[in-house]
Structures are given as structure tokens and as C-alpha cells.
Write a structure and sequence with these properties.
Blueprint (H helix, E strand, L loop, with lengths): L2 E7 L4 H14 L7 E7 L5 H6 L2 E9 L2 E2 L1 H14 L7 E8 L4 H14 L2 E2 L4 E3 L5 H16 L4
Length: 151
């Protein structure tokens, strides 16, 4: 039986798009077997999508030092419907920010602690244009979280 990794992302810029593509590439690596990668824009994700997933990757710009409104909206819509059903599931986070990301990181920590999700890897945080090392870190994040779902 395959597992599902849900990537919930808000990708409004070329920098976020590059990070998203690297995460998807890592999560979809051919060596990772039995894991279906599902992508949902943060403004369209539903509680059903979240409940159907076995793990999560979250991607967002840090706007004015906080989560994007889109990712916050995803949690506003899904939080209570998934609260008791997704405990213990692994997640990862990648952020792009030019003005500091501490507020966004704190918000994700708070939300995921409330949900009982388990941080599967260090967050990937990038300022400015992501270079080769940052994109490799995004690839590793995707691969790490997906690999944790393999049977």
C-alpha cells in the first residue's frame, strides 16, 4: 500500500518556484518507492487532502517576517477538521524570506505542535536568490520526508 506525501505550497515568485521544484524533485526521486507525491496550492488545499496524506511538506514565502496568508489560510481551513486524526505524522518546511523568517518559523512550530505533527528534518530557509547549495537542501528536504514514509 502506497503512502501519500502532500506538498502544501504558496509559490508566488521565481525564487519560491525554484525551491518548490527542488523539493518535488527530491520527494519524487526514483529510489523512493511506494510514496505518491501530491501537490496542492495552499489556497486550494482541503481537510480531505490533509486527512488523506501520511506526511507533509510545507512551502511559503515569509512575508513581513510571517507566514504567507495563503499557508495561514490552509491551516485556518484545515486545523480543526484534522486535529485529532493526523497526530504523529512527519512534516518538513521550506521558507523564502528577505526580511527575516523567525515569525514564520514560530508560527509553523506552534501550529504543528498543536496538531501533534513530528518535524522530520531541519527547516530550509533561504534569503535572496536560492543558489546551488540552497536548492540541494530543498531537494534533500523533499527526499528526507518522502523516505520516512517508505514501508
Amino acid at each position: 500500500m502506497s503512502k501519500t506525501l502532500l506538498i502544501v505550497h504558496h509559490t508566488p515568485s521565481p525564487h519560491c518556484q525554484a525551491m518548490f521544484e527542488a523539493v518535488v524533485s527530491g520527494a519524487s526521486d526514483p529510489e523512493i518507492e511506494g510514496v505518491e507525491v501530491v501537490r496542492r496550492a495552499a489556497l486550494s488545499v482541503s481537510p480531505t487532502d490533509m486527512l488523506a496524506a501520511d506526511g507533509y511538506l510545507l512551502g511559503s514565502p515569509a512575508n513581513l517576517g510571517y507566514l504567507s496568508g495563503a499557508l495561514k489560510h490552509a491551516f485556518d481551513v484545515c486545523y480543526y477538521p484534522i486535529l485529532d486524526s493526523t497526530r504523529g505524522r512527519p512534516f518538513g518546511l521550506y521558507l523564502h524570506g528577505n526580511e527575516g523568517t523567525e515569525g514564520a518559523e514560530r508560527a509553523v512550530d506552534s501550529i504543528t505542535t498543536g496538531l501533534g505533527w513530528v518535524k522530520a528534518a531541519d527547516y530550509v530557509v533561504v534569503s535572496g536568490k536560492p543558489g546551488k547549495a540552497e536548492l540541494e537542501a530543498c531537494w534533500e528536504l523533499g527526499a528526507t520526508v518522502a523516505a520516512q514514509l517508505m514501508d
